[in-house]
Amino acid sequence: MNNQKTWVEVDQGKILNNFNQFRKRVGKEVKIASVIKSNAYGHGLENVAQILKNKTDYFAVDSISEALIVRKISKRPIVILGYTPEGEYAKLLNNNIDQTVFDLSNLIKLEATARRLHKVAQVHLEIETGTSRNGILLADLPKYLEIIKKSKSLHLVGLFTHFANIEDTTNHSYAEKQLKTYKEAVKLVTQFGFTDYIKHTACTAASILFDKTYFDMIRLGIGLYGMWPSKETKISAQNNQVKIKLQSALTWKTRIAHLNSLPAKTYVSYGCTERLMRDSLVAVIPVGYYDGFDRGLSNVGEVLVGGLRCPVLGRICMNMTMIDRLMMKLYCWVVKNKKKSQPRPLLVRLILSIMRSLLESIL
User: Fold this and answer.
1) What is the domain class of 256-361 according to CATH?
2) CATH no., domain 12-239
3) Which part of the chain is CATH 2.40.37.10?
4) For residues 335 and 357, what is the distance between their CA atoms, to the nearest angstrom?
5) Which comes out higher in pLDDT, residue 140 or 347?
6) DSSP strand pairing (267-268 vs 274-275)
7) Is 37 a catalytic residue?
8) Catalytic residue among 31, 37, 199, 253
9) How far apart are CA 129 and CA 134, in angstroms?
10) pLDDT tens-digit series, residues 24-35
């Protein structure tokens, strides 16, 4: 029996379905890097690594701590997409973990550490093409390539970029400009004599919409977990007749902790921002913004009870949320026998599609 107030359930079959959908989409010749950073988008880092350890070509994480956890589970290549402090370089070198490089001083320090340890650092260069985040400007790229070419302690494994505006719009002209800049970087790398490296640009949205972004590998993030990157991505896919069936793998559940029968005009929760329009049955669930149920969903969010939607009433509290249960009275009680009836601990599935960020923040 589950005695938790709230918990998540991850469906292994749905994660595998989503992976296979993208495998079918990009073909067998294109590698898939499964992005399992940030606790696998809330789905459990170790759990998802176990599910995909014999399926994925690559794992992509954000940090050395995540990479070391995955390395204990799988021997598949791992790339750290984020920043790694100099003091952790030995760990990634000793565990055969790839490192993304976007800063010249870090490349120099990584090379020095690898040389001292008699190791070869596996690096992916991230090219700045328009996201204005981490990345190497095209004009600065030769400096990096010269260092890598001269050193026996550095090996160029990959060259990639990240699209800034491919999922939140149906106009992809900006992504086209980024792709053009990336191709210029590829030409430059080729001129320096590098040929055997992985080219990768495609995120989930690009993997769905643009096969010209596939190159050698895609980075499969939110789509792996059954979520569309955005409404616009789904619209664009439908317009282009792209057939891909994603299944949401995570269900967030809780229980009904208390029921209140309240008269019309009663205020609910802090700030008196919600006033009942009618006599109502208000349920309290033991989940709040501390657990990751974003307070921005106050008065606008919904939860599922018995498969039917119930609106959030008033402000979401730190550890509790009130919902409207008037239309669901029949689900509240189970008659055990003619002499006695008792409350049934109902499971409430919170709708994660309202806010994508819920995935990373819950629990």
Assistant:
1) mainly beta
2) 3.20.20.10
3) 256-361
4) 39
5) 140
6) antiparallel
7) yes
8) 37
9) 10
10) 999 999 999 999
